[in-house]
Design brief:
Radius of gyration: 17 Å
Number of helices: 9
Helix content: 55-70%
Shape: globular
Length: about 180
């Protein structure tokens, strides 16, 4: 499906994160009867409205949902010079980010865990949803000896929840990103 959203690049990047998240993928799989996503089904998917990205994050009220997501989406996306115009549209100046598979994995897990929280999905249901991705589980087990995606998403989910309860900002275990020179 081709989507041509008529909004600024920052909201498009947040929409991109939403559409690529595990919770939305799970919801889509409940509605899709085959391998094609029809427009009427796409319109029914529980994606966030652009205005929701201006709300504060529950785990860091000083930062909007959009700002929190955008920093991760741009780092995941802007890994080559030909994406510089997109990065600039999102407010990111400078060289592209270095492709680091471990860091990218953590960033994606943070985005997925955040969307589980934003959708109001309990930890138990989050674990259930993650268990409904057997291809990811098998791939992780083959490569890492465990269902690493589930473990890390749940660890981040718990850390976000603790940040909310403690009224303290969530601090990612990642240090500052590295950029190409």
């Amino acid at each position: 499906m081709l989507a041509m959203p008529a909004m600024n690049a920052r909201f498009v990047a947040c929409l991109y994160a939403n559409l690529c998240s595990i919770p939305l993928d799970y919801a889509a799989r409940q509605k899709v009867g085959g391998v094609h996503l029809k427009y009427n089904v796409f319109r029914q998917l529980p994606s966030f409205a652009p205005s929701q990205y201006t709300d504060p994050t529950p785990w860091n009220p000083a930062e909007s949902i959009g700002e929190w997501l955008l920093s991760r989406v741009v780092e995941l996306t802007y890994t080559a010079w030909d994406l510089k115009p997109f990065a600039e549209d999102c407010g990111c100046n400078g060289p592209p980010y270095i492709w680091d598979p471990k860091r990218r994995f953590q960033l994606q897990c943070e985005i997925d865990a955040a969307f589980f929280h934003l959708y109001g999905i309990s930890r138990e249901d989050t674990a259930y949803v993650l268990d409904s991705f057997p291809v990811v589980a098998r791939s992780d087990e083959r490569t890492h000896g465990e269902y690493r995606t589930k473990r890390v998403v749940l660890e981040v989910y718990d850390a976000l929840g603790k940040a909310v309860l403690a009224s303290q900002p969530y601090v990612s275990p990642l240090g500052p990103p590295r950029r190409a020179t």
